[in-house]
């Protein structure tokens, strides 16, 4: 019975199927909103589904210079790690696997999709992929610093009340704190960290001003240059899942709370909040900006978002 | 059921790849204009990709010169099946005013099979949208015939 | 770091999109648009002026002897045309017209030919009377 329950968790509700639909619809909403912001009609909301299923039906070409097994396995590894994260993120008070994972594990698992992109790109043996890989590495380095400092601030804030003043990395403790004292966002010392995290999302998912790794006009989509058919479809799915999971993590960290107690409603509220976060942080920025250069991105992330999250950390440490 | 979904998806999500085989840039500008807010080809799912591996529809503009001939053939060979080739403008169809030049020996259909011709010098964006629409139909039929 | 156009983006989110729904709403080409050639073979005299002025060489003329006279076929290949309207401008009889039909999508190149055939009557047998008139002119 327990095994059946866990299988249900893994494959259906917070796991694969839920993520599949939620992520692809979220990506579709993002594309539609960007189109409307640019005064276009835009693709239908189900467009990412069409893209995914079309790529499933295309021929898969594996170049001669590629390492065959790594080439196919890399996107699947990324997908598995993303599905794993979805099991650990609590939806208000409900979480599938509660005690085993905290924020640190999620941070590691969130790096794996980017690492899978790097491995896949390097196994394809194309010089364009090489350039893309180096850019992807820079982007990981640049967003990781403000992200971790912001998470430290959140952990400290929650730990002050729930964990005897120690920093806590347990997501369930953070949710517990928010159900006691209201969402993190309403504590004014957390607002700089909130803003920093909003800026981290577009880089994490690789959307427009920070999609230097997959610049389609400069370096032919970077690490994805040799991919076609099934593995490319998995990468596109990974992109959609990354948007959903990161915005979901964001909602859990900053906008969570008591919830209604019914899982279905909680999931719906979480999803609506995810959509709002994505529109604010991904769509709006994507609609009005052009692509940055590598060093501009590094400079941006190591100044403004890092400064904001450090400010938040200091305020929390002072007990404000 | 999956077969049906995939067939419908082919109709809804054709990705484009644009090859400039020595064009004068007029067709290229008109082609990019179809993706601008006014004509917005993205509402049919068209998307400009950066690499031939992702593409379904290859749009070739310009006369195929001796210099670009090898590149055009190799780029089109890298596109996974099923694929559709669209000749944009009068140049790939015949050479237009460049015909008879020392560097333009043959038309595009001498090298690769061309599925759709969009004549015009340069064609209106509406004509290009019509041509891409036709290309999508051919893409769907090719998918159905293969499987 | 500043983000211009944020206001514009948010405003246009709630406005009607400026996209033309082209294939569903038909559109006329603007006035004076140079589209597919319309050849009126009954007006043509086969002088070949259009062939001389055509830069890409899209116009071909083929003649065939018949009993009535010469059967002349003018062929305009749209796949090679630059749509410059020079042929129509130089035609002494106004037999060529560039219509506003812009969409000439085809799968087969031979569909792009616009041709017209007419029979050019041989000049009548010369008589004594007419020769004198021509001398006076």
Automatic annotation (TrEMBL), chain A:
Subcellular location(s) of the protein: Membrane
Domain of life assignment: Bacteria
Example of a GO MF term: lyase activity
Membrane topology: Multi-pass membrane protein
Keywords: Lyase, Membrane, Transmembrane, Transmembrane helix
Matching Pfam families: NADHdh (PF00146)
TM ranges: 6-29, 71-91, 97-119, 140-162, 239-256, 268-288, 300-319
Cellular component per GO, a single term: plasma membrane
Main location: membrane
Matching InterPro entries: ComplexI_Subunit1 (IPR052561), NADH_UbQ_OxRdtase_su1/FPO (IPR001694), NADH_UbQ_OxRdtase_su1_CS (IPR018086)
PANTHER family: FORMATE HYDROGENLYASE SUBUNIT 4 (PTHR43359), FORMATE HYDROGENLYASE SUBUNIT 4-RELATED (PTHR43359:SF1)
Designated name of the protein: Formate hydrogenlyase subunit 4
UniProtKB/TrEMBL annotation, chain B:
Presence of the UniProt keyword Cell cycle in the record: no
Family annotation (InterPro entries): Complex_I_20kDa-like (IPR052375), NADH_UbQ_OxRdtase-like_20kDa (IPR006137)
Needed co-factor(s): [4Fe-4S] cluster
Molecular function (Gene Ontology), one example: 4 iron, 4 sulfur cluster binding
Signal peptide: none
Pfam families, sorted: Oxidored_q6
Coiled-coil stretches: none
Segments forming domain NADH:ubiquinone oxidoreductase-like 20kDa subunit: 24-134
Keywords: 4Fe-4S, Iron, Iron-sulfur, Metal-binding
Domain of life from the UniProt record: Bacteria
Keyword Iron-sulfur among record annotations: yes
Record-linked Gene3D superfamilies: 3.40.50.12280
Family: Belongs to the complex I 20 kDa subunit family.
NCBIfam families found in the cross-reference section: PRK06411.1 (NF005012)
Name under which the protein is recorded: NADH-quinone oxidoreductase subunit B/membrane-bound hydrogenase subunit mbhJ
Natural source organism: Caloramator quimbayensis
TrEMBL record, chain C:
Keyword 4Fe-4S: yes
Gene Ontology molecular-function annotations: 4 iron, 4 sulfur cluster binding; lyase activity; metal ion binding; oxidoreductase activity, acting on NAD(P)H
Gene3D superfamilies reported in the protein's UniProt record: 3.30.70.3270
Assigned GO CC terms: membrane
4Fe-4S ferredoxin-type domain boundaries: 35-64, 70-101
Entry keyword set: 4Fe-4S, Iron, Iron-sulfur, Lyase, Metal-binding, Ubiquinone
Source organism, top-level taxon: Bacteria
InterPro entries: 4Fe4S_Fe-S-bd, 4Fe4S_Fe_S_CS, NADH_quinone_OxRdtase_chainI
PANTHER family in the cross-refs: NADH DEHYDROGENASE UBIQUINONE IRON-SULFUR PROTEIN 8, MITOCHONDRIAL
Protein's name in the database: Formate hydrogenlyase subunit 6/NADH:ubiquinone oxidoreductase subunit (Chain I)
Organism: Caloramator quimbayensis
Lineage: Bacteria, Bacillati, Bacillota, Clostridia, Eubacteriales
């Amino acid at each position: 019975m327990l095994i059946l329950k866990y299988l249900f968790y893994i494959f259906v509700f917070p796991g694969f199927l839920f993520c599949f639909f939620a992520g692809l619809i979220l990506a579709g909403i993002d594309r539609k909103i960007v189109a409307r912001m640019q005064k276009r009609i835009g693709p239908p909301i189900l467009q990412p589904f069409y893209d995914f299923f079309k790529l499933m039906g295309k021929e898969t070409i594996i170049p001669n210079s590629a390492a065959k097994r790594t080439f196919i396995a890399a996107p699947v590894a990324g997908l598995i790690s993303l599905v794993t994260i979805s099991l650990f993120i609590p939806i208000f008070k409900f979480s599938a696997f509660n005690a085993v994972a905290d924020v640190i594990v999620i941070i590691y698992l969130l790096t794996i999709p980017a690492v899978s992109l790097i491995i896949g790109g390097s196994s394809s043996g194309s010089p364009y992929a090489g350039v893309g890989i180096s850019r992807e590495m820079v982007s990981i380095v640049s967003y990781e610093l403000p992200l971790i400092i912001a998470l430290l601030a959140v952990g400290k804030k929650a730990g002050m009340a729930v964990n005897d003043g120690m920093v806590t990395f347990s997501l369930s403790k953070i949710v517990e704190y928010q159900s006691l004292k209201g969402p993190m966002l309403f504590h004014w010392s957390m607002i700089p960290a909130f803003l920093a995290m909003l800026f981290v999302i577009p880089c994490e998912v690789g959307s427009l001003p920070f999609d230097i790794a997959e610049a389609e006009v400069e370096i032919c989509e970077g690490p994805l240059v040799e991919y076609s058919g099934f593995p490319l479809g998995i990468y596109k799915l990974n992109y959609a899942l990354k948007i959903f999971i990161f915005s979901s993590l964001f909602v859990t960290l900053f906008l969570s709370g008591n919830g209604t107690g019914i899982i279905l409603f909680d999931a719906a509220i979480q999803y609506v909040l995810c959509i709002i976060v994505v529109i604010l942080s991904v769509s709006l920025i994507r609609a009005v900006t052009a692509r940055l250069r590598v060093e501009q991105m590094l400079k941006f992330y190591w100044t403004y978002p890092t400064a904001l999250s450090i400010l938040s950390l200091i305020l929390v440490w002072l007990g404000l | 059921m999956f077969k049906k979904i995939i067939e419908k998806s082919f109709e809804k999500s054709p990705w484009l790849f644009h090859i400039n085989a020595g064009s004068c840039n007029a067709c290229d500008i008109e082609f990019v204009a179809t993706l601008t807010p006014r004509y917005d080809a993205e509402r049919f799912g068209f998307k400009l990709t950066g690499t031939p591996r992702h593409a379904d529809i290859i749009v070739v503009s310009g006369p195929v010169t001796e210099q670009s001939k090898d590149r055009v053939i190799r780029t089109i060979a890298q596109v996974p099946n099923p694929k559709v080739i669209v000749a944009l403008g009068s140049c790939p169809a015949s050479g237009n005013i460049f015909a008879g030049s020392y560097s333009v020996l043959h038309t595009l259909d001498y090298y690769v099979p061309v599925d759709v011709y969009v004549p015009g010098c340069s064609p209106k964006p509406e004509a290009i949208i019509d041509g891409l629409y036709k290309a999508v139909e051919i893409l769907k039929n090719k998918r159905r015939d293969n499987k | 770091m500043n983000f211009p156009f944020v206001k514009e983006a948010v405003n246009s989110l709630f406005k009607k999109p400026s996209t033309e729904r082209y294939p569903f709403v038909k559109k006329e080409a603007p006035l004076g648009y140079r589209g597919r050639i319309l050849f009126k073979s009954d007006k043509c005299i086969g002088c070949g002026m259009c062939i001389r002025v055509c830069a890409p060489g899209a116009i071909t003329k083929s003649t065939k002897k018949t009993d009535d006279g010469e059967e002349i076929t003018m062929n305009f290949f749209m796949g090679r045309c630059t749509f410059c309207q020079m042929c129509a401008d130089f035609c002494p009889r106004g037999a060529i017209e560039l219509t506003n039909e812009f969409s000439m999508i085809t799968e087969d190149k031979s569909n792009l030919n616009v041709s017209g055939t007419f029979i050019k009557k041989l000049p009548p047998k010369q008589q004594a009377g007419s020769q004198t008139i021509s001398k006076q002119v």
